[in-house]
Specification:
By secondary structure, this protein is mainly alpha-helical. Helix content is 67%, strand content 2%. A two-stranded antiparallel sheet has the order 1-2. The longest helix has 31 residues.
């Protein structure tokens, strides 16, 4: 069951539930062929444990580098600034992407779907940017686009990540010109994911009602999702506060004392840390305000506040003044 080649074969033939793919026993575990093939090649040389660690480190570097390159392309094309300004802007974007609470949580508990998502989001944005804005879309750009899609497959082990990724890419495409290229790229990306989307949709329609009764689903839902309004406050979303930071577990020694899952959690209540996190949130809001103010001149930046507002709307759920919107969606859209 744990053999490399058997796992790869099982992946491509497990989409209709005839087999079970290695990894998370969820709805779309057949989306991980890239990592499995990579581990299959590396494991005989460096061992399975080190190969897995190399994959995690590679995702961190891919995410940071792709965010730098993507930001540099956008600033150079839109603002027309000199090399120093472009380099500084791209470096700030990459550092902000790496140095935040959400990234800290992602790599402290390295779950494959979120590790891969960290690398795939800027990689996909870069791939879409090249397809839309390069004068000539040649074979290299197409191969880069397809490769980015394949790398991103592993992040869709959690199917909802695909929904949020499509929403982000759609908002990005809507503010780019020529729009036709962006729409074609979006359709191609969805088609490249059809090998798991179709069986995933079939499984969701058939089993979603029963899945809610599964003990694992109930325990996870109660621990991580069914939290009080404070956990979904606007402040927590602006500082990218991970939801599991509120989780406390019994000590391994006496099984009575409660301790935070992450060692940083208890430090965040101190004033100096709150100030530092507040500066991060203020810088983000100021940047978004400048984009909105100059949206006529820098229209292609408009997707950034759109994505930000969309993220805040979803992550605060029904606990803000705009809570009626996700409540309405949850009531009227099946499986929302």
């Amino acid at each position: 069951y744990l053999g490399g080649w058997e796992s790869v074969v099982r992946t491509f033939f497990s989409t209709w539930r005839a087999y079970r793919g290695i990894g998370v026993p969820g709805d779309s575990e057949s989306t991980d062929p890239f990592r499995q093939l990579l581990l299959l090649m590396l494991s005989p040389v460096v061992g399975a444990g080190l190969a897995d660690q190399l994959y995690i480190i590679a995702c961190l570097w891919i995410g940071a580098i792709c965010m730098y390159v993507f930001a540099a392309r956008v600033v150079r094309r839109t603002v027309g600034a000199g090399y120093s300004i472009v380099d500084l802007s791209a470096a700030i974007a990459a550092c902000a992407y790496v140095a935040n609470l959400n990234t800290l949580a992602t790599f402290y508990f390295p779950i494959i779907t979120y590790i891969t998502r960290f690398a795939s989001l800027p990689l996909l944005l870069l791939a879409f940017d090249r397809v839309i804005h390069e004068k000539l879309v040649g074979v290299r750009i197409v191969l880069f686009f397809v490769g980015a899609a394949i790398v991103s497959y592993g992040s869709f082990i959690t199917g909802s990540v695909f929904i949020t990724t499509i929403c982000m890419l759609t908002l990005y495409v809507c503010f780019q010109r020529p729009l036709r290229r962006g729409v074609v790229a979006l359709i191609l990306f969805i088609l490249l994911n059809m090998f798991w989307l179709l069986p995933f949709a079939n499984y969701t329609l058939q089993k979603s009602a029963a899945l809610r009764l599964a003990p694992v689903f109930i325990d996870t839902n109660e621990t991580q999702l069914n939290l009080g309004p404070d956990a979904y406050s606007l402040w927590n979303q602006l500082i990218l506060y991970p939801n599991f930071f509120t989780t406390r577990v019994a000590s391994a020694t006496d099984h009575i004392t409660k301790a935070s899952l992450h060692p940083v959690t208890d430090l965040l209540s101190r004033r100096q840390y709150q100030v530092a996190l507040g500066l991060f949130a203020i810088a983000s809001l100021l940047g978004l305000g400048l984009i909105i103010f100059g949206v006529r001149r820098y229209r292609s930046f408009g997707w950034l506040p759109a994505v930000y507002i969309f993220f805040v709307l979803l992550s605060t759920q029904e606990h803000t003044a705009l809570g009626f919107i996700p409540a309405f969606l949850n009531k009227h859209i099946p499986y929302f």
